[in-house]
Amino acid sequence: MTYADQDFIPDGQEESPSYPTAFGITFTPQVGGIIFAVLGLLGSVYLFLNVVQPAWEKYQKLEDEVKNKQIQVERQKEIQLKIDQTKEKLEQAKQKNKQVLGLFANDKTLDTLLLDLNSFVKSRNGRLTNFQPQPGQDSEIVNDGSFGAAVNGKLKRKIYNVEIEGSFDQVQSILRSFERLQALLLIKDFKADVSEPQALFVDKGRVVPVIVDKNRKVLPGGKPTIKASFKLVTLMPVTEEDKKAAAAQAGKKPSR
Q1: pLDDT in tens, 129-179
Q2: pLDDT(60) > 90
Q3: Rounded to 5, what percent of the chain is helix, strand, coil?
Q4: Domain match, 77 and 119 both
Q5: Are residues 70 and 179 in the same domain?
Q6: Which of 18, 52, 109, 165 could form a disulfide with 48 if both were Cys (CB 3.0 to 4.6 A apart)?
């Protein structure tokens, strides 16, 4: 009895493996590996372009925003520091301005100026013989550059005619005492005359200095009396009211 074995392969012949074929391409293991590698590469590229790259760009953008915010914060700190420094300088300038303005006269110090001067003169045994505002002139705004062009229109002055009498030492002490006044005062057109000159009298071979008073009485050892006259200039800051008054006064002047 005989039968045919379908799996029988003659000696020397091997059956070639069967691989799927599509589009004229036989998908052998090698070809399949290449295809899967290409598909994997394409998938990686797809994931990179659609997932990784957008996420990375978003991260970079957020990182740049954080850096920009940090820079802005640092700049804000610098700006705030400069603002604080400017405020401090402004406050210092205000204090200095207040101190400088305190050196000038004001209505209150002018009201007591005569009393203060008379007190200084009496305390040094001198005499205040005249203290009058300059005739025909009230306080005026300085615009003539006499104190420098920088203060034109910023200061006003009031001038008094003053006369004092006393010995040389007394007059000198009185003038020095003006420095103790709160107001800033200037002395102009100073003149000094000897009203009771000193003479020399010979008595028993001794030379004695004497003066002859107004009653022609001889006073041995007396000191000559000096009569000093000068203009006392008081300086005051110009206020807004002063500027308005000056502008109104200028508007009243007839045009030529």
Answers
A1: 999 988 877 778 888 888 788 778 888 888 999 999 988 889 999 988 887
A2: no
A3: 45, 25, 25
A4: no
A5: no
A6: 52
Main-chain dihedrals φ then ψ at residue 17, nearest 5 degrees:
-65, 155
| Domain encompassing residue 43 | 26-82
Rounded to whole angstroms, the maximal C-alpha distance in the chain is 198
Residue 19 lies in a domain: no
- Distance (Å, whole) CA 117 – CA 164: 10
> pTM of whole model > 0.70?
no
Most confident of 65-74, 174-183, 197-206: 65-74
* DSSP state letter for 179: G
pLDDT band at 219 (very low <50, low <70, confident <90, very high): low
140: in domain? yes
- Closest by CA position to 195, among listed 231, 177, 222: 222
pLDDT at 4: 46
- Which tokens hold the place of 173? 């002490």
Residue in the block written with tokens 């006259």:
229
Selection from 40-54, 84-98, 187-201 with the highest mean pLDDT: 84-98
φ, ψ dihedrals at 136, nearest 5°: 70, 15
Instruction: For residues 156 and 137, give the distance between their C-alpha atoms in angstroms, rounded to a whole number.
Output: 12
Of 82, 116, 146, the position where a domain reaches its end is: 82
Treating both helix axes as pointing N-terminal to C-terminal, what angle do 113-123 and 168-177 enclose, rounded to 10 degrees? 140
pLDDT reported for residue 3: 46
Residues 148, 144: Cα–Cα separation, whole Å: 8
